[in-house]
Amino acid sequence: MIWDILFAPFADFGFMRRALLGCFAIAVGATPVGVFLMLRRMSLTGDAMAHAILPGAAIGYLVSGLSLGAMTIGGLIAGMVVALGSGVVSRMTALREDASLAAFYLISLALGVLIVSTRGSNVDLMHVLFGTVLALDDAALILLCSIASLSVVIVAVLFRPLVLECADPQFLRSVSNLSAVTHFVFLGLVVMNLVAGFHALGTLMAVGIMILPAAAARFWTATIGGLILAAAMIAALSSVAGLLLSFHLSLPSGPAIILVAGIVYGLSVIIGPVGGLLVQALPRRHFET
Amino acid sequence: MAALAFQDLTLGYDRHPAVHHLQTEIADGSLTAVVGPNGAGKSTLLKGVTGALSPLEGRVAFGGITRDDIAYLPQQSDIDRAFPMSVVDLVAMGLWKEIGAFGWLGRARRDRVEGAIAAVGLTGFETRPIGALSGGQMQRVLFARLLLQDARLVLLDEPFTAIDARTMADLIGVVRGWHGEGRTVIAVLHDHETVRAHFPRTLMLAREMVAHGPTRQVLTSENHARALQMCEACASTPHVCGKTAA
User: Fold this and answer.
1) pTM summary value
2) Per-window interface: A 207-246 vs B, CB < 8 A
């Protein structure tokens, strides 16, 4: 019974195993980036960047159909252009980062919708928006795992500047000239992980696996290492549960995974030991007995 | 020898000057207070020294030091107090010049971090998250980080504002320690009592230089009145430079 519910789908069906591996790759690669997005109060930036990727993927699709390589490269280029463009505008003019990013991604999104709707069919649009985690082929899996590995390595190498850029950017600027580099490499990481995510979960859902586990982890631990570990575990757990739900109840898998992550987030808000609602409501002794 | 020479230095924002044609020198190893009314360009001057602000005219000349030898404590640090980070982590950042982005901290450097925390009287607070510190404790942490930066020139922008007397006394002890070690210290201050008691030299600014020299000779009521008058004149006719073209 338990075997049938929890293990049989993965044991019996190759596409479920592939989906699980793809989701694990995204969980490992994207959640550290999500943790830093959250700590830098840039959680919504992930969402903006996800929309910004659309025209690149659409142009890739126009050029060579549903091709993994073309859509990946297109998405990367579109994301980088928006990240760099908005970064340059906000660093060189009076416009703030949020406003310049909003301007760039809205232009990018409109362009993407225009391209998709003039040339593609609705099915293709659904593919880009919601992904195809149950139809990941070898090439897609290799791409997801490569991006996840690269992302983890870059975060590890840039860990100290990333932390400083979040915690005390003024100090980082005063002792080193890595500030701008760190910022743009970080935006590059966001784009990279979103592009990996959209193959499996679609451009809209890819942000979910990045941000929701990070937000939930905040209620369980108060150290950066702990946050990254907890977020990755929550993302992996949500992937397993979401895939099983979608298998047994015939639900679309991308939204199922993200909704499970959402449920974990909701529970964390209530029962999380670090600033959760329940802990705050309970009377606390202010001294040890 | 002069650690710093301001040569016809004019600094400002959006081409509106805040410091006008400043011409003076800061001696190596001196302990100088920068005083003046609000909007006199005191913080702007420090930003000009760190290089955060480029001169509109003139220059800051360094004698025997480079911009890497400067430690700067801004008036309002933009430290994210909600960031999950402990006192040790924040203080250890002061070692950036030695270990950079990738260097190993190691046992010896850890000991120095703990030494700096002890020097500002925060022993026992090492693992406390920075979000749980009071304003005075946070200022002690920032001074500990400055200690580790081991800089030849220390710039402090209103370091004692809004902290309790006990903390202030301890931190002034740290500043005097730097002075004793021959480091050059420049501090923007408001409280003239503090300046008289602890700072041998004073630079009074009111966009232009009012006076610079031994504190006793600079902090006079005439100079003070003149500074206020100059700043009011600046406020009523904002962006006009008083200097005539040579």
Assistant:
1) 0.85
2) 221-224, 227
